[in-house]
Protein: Arylsulfatase D-like isoform X2
Organism: Podarcis lilfordi
Amino acid sequence: MWRHPCSPLALVLLLNSLELQASVSYKPNFLIFLADDFGIGDLGCYGNDTIRTPNIDRLAEEGVKLTQHISAAPVCSPSRAAFLTGRYPVRSGLDERDRFRVISWLAGSGGLPQNETTFAKILQNKGYTTGLIGKWHLGMNCQTRDDFCHHPLNHGFDYFYGMPFSLMGDCQITYPPEKDMPQRIKLWSYTLLIALAVLTLMAAKLTHLLPLSWKTIFSLALFGCAFFISWFSSYGFIRYWDCIVMRNYEITEQPMKVERAASLVLREAISFIERNKQGPFFLFVSFLHVHTPVVTTERFRGKSRHGLYGDNVEEMDWMVGRILDKLDKENLKNSTLTYFTSDHGGHLEAREGNAPRGGWNGIYKGGKAMAGWEGGIRVPGLFRWTGMLPEGKIIHEPTSLMDIFPTLVHLAGGTVPQDRIIDGRDLMPLLQGSVQHSEHEFLFHYCGMHLHAARWHQKDSGNVWKVHYMTPIFHPEGSGGCYNIIFCQCSGKYVRQHDPPLLFDLSRDPSEAVSLSPDTEPLFHEVLKRIGRAVEEHRRTLTPVPSQLSFGHNIWKPWLQPCCGTFPFCWCDKEKENL
Ligand SMILES: *[C@@H]1O[C@H](CO)[C@@H](O)[C@H](O)[C@H]1NC(C)=O
Ligand SMILES: *[C@@H]1O[C@H](CO)[C@@H](O)[C@H](O)[C@H]1NC(C)=O
Ligand SMILES: *[C@@H]1O[C@H](CO)[C@@H](O)[C@H](O)[C@H]1NC(C)=O
């Protein structure tokens, strides 16, 4: 609508834009919440009426809600790499090779490459104090136990507290804690036993009591060690290897006490704000929630209507609330851009008996590990910045988690790296309403290194087309998940190739229920051709990079094992001492 330039509204608009410019001249704080494996269907503000998430919902009421917010990968490590670098994970080598899709051991040598630049690094250079509290899962060491080449502190964070790896089933002890001691005693006895056996054999050989060759003795010793290592890495020792907590470079808990993690994460987040309230700061709260085994504090257990999983969601929401309260208390609400999202969709196959233990992806098909179906990649996206962003606004345009990179870099007064391709786009114009359309015309949906699908937002018509070149084969057929293998895979016998590709129009069929055909969609061939061309253009921008998830990188390397003590006797609980 056109208005006379002197009308009161125009004046107000003019004033508003002057005010905007004035207020952008300071550096806002950034508070980012990233949930783990959290489905878009589990939030009140996205339509769930039985899980209570009032604190996260508050962000939607007081800010902008994105309904088509897309993660770059459907599993943890690659999605987080893309989030922090603003680039598709294939560009940094965090894509599947040899069937590994995430970093599988803390003592592997793969991780976020040192020559990748995270937005934390740029914010740090722009004078921000940057902190990561919670999960990392992007590697640790390259060559020695303490080179920390992939550590958060070498990727732009001034402070790190949390799990360098990921929460998983093995982190939770299923036997009483008292049983922990005998475990260690066993370890000592086995070590002594093997040493003693080898020494005895050597003594026997030297005194000519036994007619054994050195070769045999060496083989026996090797066999003993191999047996020892295999014994050591089973029987609950994965917990010692992978489930640890660090403060900066120091291990504070090995193995971690999972039931204590939530309160420590909360304590650390609040004290980070307290320490840095004069700003500018960037606090990245990377939740261990709601990943299995959904360990939940007593206080929330049995309180939700959706079992342990629901309890865990409500606990996370409570933590968000406590951290937001701290912002309010310090009068930082208006000067802080707050963002909430999840690394990818909920894990449908995580079940306990008949009850789900993973998330719910609402009306969207599929979930975690599925790159093509919306349920794997469409996640919550909430932005609040009081006074700077509209309140209660809903945006249906396609956006990506990779957009956070350029958005925050620009707000901090920085520039994005010019020597590489950044796939994210600055979101501020869209969030503030100065443009109507997202800058993303195409988005590419990778499953590991395999392109499973692509979407095209046809701006003039408003259609959001999506083609699937491959889809995972569900088991049982039609169930919407891969219940035989826990995770859907990306290639080989686990997927079905489609030629012609499957085509959906998400603007009419967001659940991807009925695929279109040339009979039902006159534009069928035209759309496929247009997207095919975009895929070709996109492919031309890719250059081969060393894989971080190759077999060679992704195995347990004892010499890289972070260890609180003298390897292999790694255990400590410094939190207990501090409590
Ligand atoms: C709310 O979340 C629960 C738990 O994931 C799910 O079972 C339920 O169907 C959801 N409700 C709606 C309306 O989406
Ligand atoms: C924060 O912004 C809101 C809306 O612009 C304003 O009403 C409020 O007074 C501001 N609060 C502070 C502490 O500046
Ligand atoms: C990082 O190093 C690898 C290996 O040398 C190279 O292939 C890649 O292009 C580099 N990435 C950037 C962003 O410079």
Q: What stands out?
A: Residues 113, 115-116, 420, 545-546 surround 2-acetamido-2-deoxy-beta-D-glucopyranose (ligand 3) (CB under 6 Å). Residues 1-23 have pLDDT under 50 and may be disordered.
